[in-house]
Amino acid sequence: MTAKLLCFFHEQFFQGVRAHAGKHRSAEYGAEFLWFGPNKSLARAQVPDELARVFAKVQASVASFDANPTDPSYDESALRLAAWTHAEHIRIHPFEDGNGRTCRLFMNGVLIRVGLQPIQLEVPKQEYLNCLNWYYSRGDIGPLEALCLRIYPVA
Fold first, then answer.
1. Does the structure show a pLDDT above 70 at 154?
2. Domain total in the chain
């Protein structure tokens, strides 16, 4: 689970459609800031380091899941990691556009990697956006985790 994979997903969505397909913002590339709803992205120079931080946590967490496959909280913990991963990518907003669909795909990549089924965020769009905005403004992942747990019941 790396930035290279995230960029690959983005490239697959936008190859031949957008000139920036597969290329995340950096000090040398992209808009300084992006606006999504009421939120402002990180500065483009922060994107590579923030992506590296997120991927380091994801990789460490996946290694922990691999080492503890019988943990009774495995599924719930994996869903919480996937929700956090998604919210962090949205907060960073690494791409000029297409962040939502790319980051939802990556979230599902995390779930598949740890042996769970992908999650379909088939809820009213505003409910989903409210959860992301809550995380962005308060740093509280709870509502997005609760949403994911509600639509993907843990056995």
1. no
2. 1
